[in-house]
Design brief:
By secondary structure, this protein is α+β, with helices and mostly antiparallel strands. It has 17 helices and ten strands. One of its GO terms (cellular component) is endoplasmic reticulum membrane.
């Protein structure tokens, strides 16, 4: 345990897995608030997101999202995911055909098209046109929410971790144009469904049903838009960043890439060329590859909690510390994931760490890419699902190599704050193997 002060707020950094388990799970009610918060007047759409809320508001909104992202709903989203994969495949095929079978691409820009399109279709019920060159696509519009590294991280840190400063400076986490864009989409889609009597079997419709007033059956459009924005927050930037790091790791290791492609091709043969929900769930080695990449470069580099009820923390070394309400508790995700105490050769990319035989030997609380306990990431399953679908689509017909434009080694940018961004642009060369 290491004590510190964040301005005038006391804090404690912990790395003992049992202490982390205490804070995140067994004594969750004593630490049930994240340090991150948003001003509801500046960011009205995101103040219902479970990540930024606590207490009854957190419980209510998390329950809605969990319901809308249940196992049966994920199977329906998997069908929409097939549409995104078809667009993704056509886009890559077009790019390779224009450049004699291979092309160089900024992989984060490519993967952000993929994740943006799924959000557009599943959460907002529209064709995002993210794989087109049109001037107004879903991907281009929401991109303004994530400025370049440096500027973006300063804005993010100010709005989330210094909300009082954000309020004074009138800094928004979600730009006004994105807020208006989301509201406009939801209003148009809901009006269309009302006029036509269409009842779609998708995430958006489930949220609509959950946001109806029990007395007059009217839909709370603000609530619907807010939950769609939560889907966006969970499924767009974090997933595209993770996909960027995963594809980079695969590109650096031909042996892993070959083994992974074999699993993909075996599954395509088993499921007659269809990328189904069951297909995605059965890719066990791909699970290992994604998990190992997220160990080396977790999308959220640290977790931050606030003590809400006095509690005495006792470390495995016998050190005791009484924590009072308002104290910040910091858990370094990347520190845990690279700690040689817990991991052999921690800086080496080795998907076999997460094989069935080996993963049983690890303490559950030394690997936290999605957090843990009651406040774990609500979008974890859909994030993994879309990442596996994107990788299967890409590696089925193409090999990937690190392009000479990539400055290696690629790690996490030193100015990364809320999310871990690459230290350098990741350029990969995609080659057809048909």
């Amino acid at each position: 345990m290491i004590g510190f002060y964040n301005f005038r707020t006391p804090g404690l950094i912990i790395r003992d897995p049992e202490l982390i388990k205490t804070v995140m799970l067994t004594k969750f009610n004593n630490f049930n608030k994240n340090t991150s918060s948003l001003d509801p007047h500046l960011d009205p759409l995101l103040t219902n997101d479970p990540f930024f809320t606590s207490g009854l508001k957190w419980k209510t909104n998390r329950a809605i999202l969990m319901n809308a992202l249940s196992g049966s709903r994920l199977k329906l989203i998997a069908i929409q995911l097939q549409t995104v994969c078809e667009k993704f495949s056509s886009y890559i095929e077009e790019q390779t055909s224009m450049s004699d079978g291979d092309f160089s691409v900024n992989i984060q820009q490519l993967m952000s098209r993929f994740t943006a399109e799924l959000v557009a279709i599943a959460a907002f019920g529209i064709d995002g046109k993210s794989f087109t060159n049109e001037s107004e696509t879903f991907a281009l519009t929401v991109k303004s929410m994530f400025p370049p590294v440096g500027v973006g991280e300063i804005i993010g840190i100010n709005t989330i971790f210094l909300p009082f400063l954000a309020k004074i400076l009138r800094i928004r986490f979600m730009p006004k144009n994105v807020d208006n864009y989301f509201r406009q989409i939801i209003n148009c889609v809901l009006q269309h469904r009302e006029d036509t009597g269409e009842i779609a079997q998708d995430f958006l419709q489930k949220v609509v049903d959950l946001c109806k007033n029990e007395n007059d059956n009217k839909v709370n459009k603000n609530a619907v838009t807010s939950h769609a924005a939560s889907f966006f927050l969970n499924g767009y930037e974090t997933s595209s960043l993770t996909l960027s790091f995963v594809t980079y790791r695969i590109a650096t290791d031909p042996i892993v890439q070959t083994k992974l492609r074999k699993e993909i091709m075996d599954n395509f043969e088993k499921y007659e060329g269809k990328l189904t929900y069951e297909f995605i769930q059965e890719m066990k080695y791909m699970d290992q590859v994604i998990k190992e990449s997220m160990r080396l470069t977790p999308t959220i580099p640290y977790l931050a909690k606030i003590c809400t009820k006095e509690f005495k923390l006792v470390g495995s070394d016998g050190l005791e510390c009484t924590v009072y309400p308002g104290t910040e508790i910091i858990i370094s995700t990347i520190g845990l994931h690279r700690d040689p105490t817990f991991w052999e050769n921690p800086d080496v990319f080795d998907p076999e760490r997460f094989s069935d035989d080996k993963r049983r030997n690890y303490h559950k609380f030394i690997y936290l890419p999605f957090g843990s306990g009651p406040k774990s990431c609500v979008g974890m399953r859909i994030a993994i699902m879309q990442m596996k679908a994107a990788l299967a689509t890409l590696l089925k017909n193409y090999s990937i190599e690190v392009d000479e434009k990539t400055k290696e080694p690629v790690g996490i940018h030193r100015l990364s704050g809320f999310t871990a961004t690459p230290s350098n642009e990741i350029w990969l060369r995609i080659k057809s193997i048909k």
